[in-house]
Design goal:
The complex is a heterodimer of chains A (219) and B (286). Chain A is mainly alpha-helical. In chain A, 70% of the residues lie in helices and 4% in strands. In chain A, strands 1-3 form a two-stranded antiparallel ribbon. Classes of the chains: A mainly alpha (219), B alpha+beta (286).
Chain lengths: 219, 286
Amino acid sequence: MTPAVAARPRTTVRIVRFDAVQRTAHWVNALLFGILMVTALPLYFGSIAGVVGRRALVEQIHLWAGIALPVPLLISLLGPWGAQFRRDLRRINVWTRDEVTWLKALGRRAPQVVDKFNPGQKLNAIFTGAAIVVMLATGAMLKWFRFFPVDWRTGATFVHDVFAFAIFVMVAAHVLFALAHPDSLRSMIRGWVTQVWAARHAPGWLAEEQSKVEPDTVS
Amino acid sequence: MGHDLLARLTTVTSLRRPRQRVDTAPGGGAAAAFPCAHSLALVSANPTGTTRQGAQQRVAVGRRVFLGLVGLGAAGIVFGAKVQNVLSNVVGSGLGGLLPLGDHFRIYSISGTFPVIPRSEYRLEVTGLVDRPQTYTLDDLESMPRTTFVKDFHCVTGWSVPAVHWEGVRLSEILDAVGVQKAAVALRFESYDGADTESLTLEQARLPDVIVAYRMLGAPVTTEHGGPVRLYVAPMFGYKSLKWLSAISVVDQVIPGFWEQNGYPLNGWIDGSTGATDPSLTGGAA
């Protein structure tokens, strides 16, 4: 077999980075996050609440968008159509030592070999997944507060607020990175990247694609 | 179908064993691209024996980070109340509004918009089983004996605002002024928003830290906080402190208010007991 490095990457050759299932899941998820973040503002800031009013309606929209939040991810992950999504989830789980070092150095030291996703992207995905779980749990506690002691309600409010704050920061960063990297953004809209892009940003993944080796499986 | 889904879920979750060693980089190309010196440096930094394959050895840390974040959330639920108190004390109230610490009010209203009532048009009607039904203006209320205290505002959903300054007239003063008849059992409160109602028993209404408030946070009660006049029932959760107070009627039975009809407890005692108030306001007799 020809070594991966021998194949010269070309701009004319496209590789699928995100399949239709992943893209749909991403944008439905993004829409729900958007609705939740917009409706969160008047629920949290009294000054905005005064302008917007209709608290009961805003609250209902926030509640139902929250309940719907895990649905697109679960459907796209668990169905027979989710093979590539599940493979990418495995990539996000598996980090090289190099990437762990990057995380511990808070990104000051770039990883040597970039797989399909760089450590920042992996962290964003992991954070988003964890945030969904935490926000869903604490949000449910605030909605059905009668079943929990007052201290826990206070804690749930606190966690919901702190994670909301973190979500705003992460989403803002995510959007800024996407806008700064149009090729990455396009791959989440139309699905593909060029070989040249992959060679530059995800050489490990390109080598894997070129050698047609299935991504490593974890038994 | 169900089995199929379960099997897939198991596949997804099967990568959850922590510190699991996974095979080396695909094709070996990536690993080979790096000189051993780099790997050696890492080996010496991590003398655990698990790093023999160096920088490109793979570990399943994603799951650990995920569970760590979820665990932080769970810990926050259980210990958050304490953390928040410490942070609020350290940061102080000035920065509190900027940080997501929740020591500021969340504004609730039932109706679509806040009722805006000019000071000169404000009226409080007191009717029902009373000897002398009255309609108070804001000037009337302000000329009555004034009560001020600093107390926390606690919402039943868990957020609270520490050390809020309250000022107004005790509900018991108003009840004494109108003369409550013998058949009376409870009070029913109505709001200018046309939707919110509340109830208190006569006994609860006569507690010394239950006031008809016209000043709060050191200023006249703002529209969003229920101004110009709202109820403040200190020993109970916030939903009992009806905003934009328009009418009080003295009645012969407890009529559940808006929030009680929506499942909230009739008696919203903050301490969960059957009754309590601040001993400092009653001279020690709680």
